[in-house]
Write a structure and sequence with these properties.
The chain is an alpha+beta fold. Helix content is about 25%, strand content about 35%. Strands 1, 2, 3, 4, 5 and 6 form a six-stranded mixed sheet that branches. Strands 7-8-9-10 form a four-stranded mixed sheet, with helices on one face.
């Protein structure tokens, strides 16, 4: 359980729109990779939010276990979107969105960003959602910036987020766009 709580340092939450939807972003640290994760602890934390963008999903089985734990802890049915495995030949992970179906529904446009310039190690993933309370829509994008050996490895991807942001606002035109993820900037040293 302590390992699950350590992940909270990367958890970000905000409330969006009049419908008061809580959105979280969480790097779940190699979810499903065989590490000693307490899915009950993860589910308990996740149950406080309406939509959760996940980074570092390593297996479908890990995501299945987290979704089941979330449903047990919240007592509600969850929806789920997941990307394909993204990365290099040596390392791949997926993104996922888990959402409380009583509050939010998937609207359209779940897609991995087409990175024509090959700027991202793991291309961002996004989808459009609708609040059930007031039918307001929002697009949520998630990214996991490469950590590398130092800040200089991260800077190209951080700069490339500007192109991704413009793309999101074009693709989801007329919709509030939100970008979350693990930007790997905390505690940076040159």
């Amino acid at each position: 359980m302590q390992r699950a709580i350590i992940g909270l340092a990367l958890l970000i939450s905000s409330t969006v729109f009049a419908a008061e939807i809580t959105v979280a972003s969480w790097n779940v640290k190699r979810l499903g990779s065989g590490s000693q994760q307490s899915f009950e602890a993860l589910g308990k934390v996740a149950s406080a939010f309406d939509v959760i963008a996940l980074q570092e999903v390593m297996t479908v089985q890990g995501l299945n276990k987290l979704e089941a734990a979330l449903e047990r802890m919240s007592g509600e049915k969850c929806g789920r979107l997941e990307s394909s495995m993204i990365g290099s030949k040596a390392y791949k992970e997926a993104y996922a969105f888990l959402y409380r179906e009583s509050t939010v529904e998937y609207d359209e446009g779940a897609v991995v960003y087409l990175d024509r310039s090959d700027q991202f190690f793991r291309e961002p993933f996004s989808a459009k959602f609708k609040a059930r309370a007031d039918h307001s829509t929002f697009a949520l994008g998630t990214v996991h910036i490469i950590y590398g050996k130092g800040v200089s490895n991260r800077v190209p991807e951080i700069k490339a987020l500007a192109d991704y942001w413009l793309w999101m606002n074009e693709v989801y035109s007329g919709t509030e766009c939100i970008l979350v993820g693990d930007f790997n900037l905390g505690g940076c040293r040159g």
